[in-house]
Amino acid sequence: MSEIRVASRYAKSLLELAEEKGALEVVHNDMQLFSNTCDNSRELKLMLRNPIINHDVKLKALRRLFSDKFHTITLSFFEILTKKQRENLLDVIAKEFHKQYNALMKIENALVTTPFELTEDLRASFRKAVEEISGKQVELKEKINPELIGGFVLQINDKQIDTSISSRLKELRVKFSENPYIKEF
């Protein structure tokens, strides 16, 4: 079975348990913190995926890092996964948990790419526009790409709005290349 499918099942179980126990927000915050920690710590990821390191050692490391920060449900979940020798999937499970949480809470993911850092006003404008388009709350992620020159690219699931100058220049290049009177552009 693929890693994503297994992670999705574990994430669903954790989501349902957290919701049943009334700790959904806390567990979601725990999983977000864990995911961010993994994204920023290559060593933690490698340690969890290393088959040579004993599972008990991995559990001790997780406890030492997160026992004072995480809810008991999250810590118990980590213990269960470690006993089942599935700690290598924890990072993937955390990401899947976040996706399922967003689906449950009807939160839309959007990515805006600009050639510069967004101001609070622009961020609010993008968030409002996506909320109007999707009719859902928005989790807006930002990416900076100086090659866009100007404008923006907004992705909402499989939809994309591209108003970047670099994309307009590419369109012009294609139009000019199709013109038989212009040899080279």
UniProtKB/TrEMBL annotation:
<keyword id="KW-0375">Hydrogen ion transport</keyword>
<keyword id="KW-0813">Transport</keyword>
<comment type="similarity">
    <text>Belongs to the ATPase delta chain family.</text>
</comment>
<dbReference type="Pfam" id="PF00213">
    <property type="entry name" value="OSCP"/>
</dbReference>
<dbReference type="GO" id="GO:0005886">
    <property type="term" value="C:plasma membrane"/>
</dbReference>
<dbReference type="GO" id="GO:0045259">
    <property type="term" value="C:proton-transporting ATP synthase complex"/>
</dbReference>
<dbReference type="GO" id="GO:0046933">
    <property type="term" value="F:proton-transporting ATP synthase activity, rotational mechanism"/>
</dbReference>
<keyword id="KW-0472">Membrane</keyword>
<keyword id="KW-0406">Ion transport</keyword>
<keyword id="KW-1003">Cell membrane</keyword>
<comment type="function">
    <text>This protein is part of the stalk that links CF(0) to CF(1). It either transmits conformational changes from CF(0) to CF(1) or is implicated in proton conduction.</text>
</comment>
<keyword id="KW-0139">CF(1)</keyword>
<dbReference type="InterPro" id="IPR026015">
    <property type="entry name" value="ATP_synth_OSCP/delta_N_sf"/>
</dbReference>
<keyword id="KW-0066">ATP synthesis</keyword>
<dbReference type="InterPro" id="IPR000711">
    <property type="entry name" value="ATPase_OSCP/dsu"/>
</dbReference>
<dbReference type="InterPro" id="IPR020781">
    <property type="entry name" value="ATPase_OSCP/d_CS"/>
</dbReference>
<comment type="function">
    <text>F(1)F(0) ATP synthase produces ATP from ADP in the presence of a proton or sodium gradient. F-type ATPases consist of two structural domains, F(1) containing the extramembraneous catalytic core and F(0) containing the membrane proton channel, linked together by a central stalk and a peripheral stalk. During catalysis, ATP synthesis in the catalytic domain of F(1) is coupled via a rotary mechanism of the central stalk subunits to proton translocation.</text>
</comment>
<protein>
    <recommendedName>
        <fullName>ATP synthase subunit delta</fullName>
    </recommendedName>
</protein>
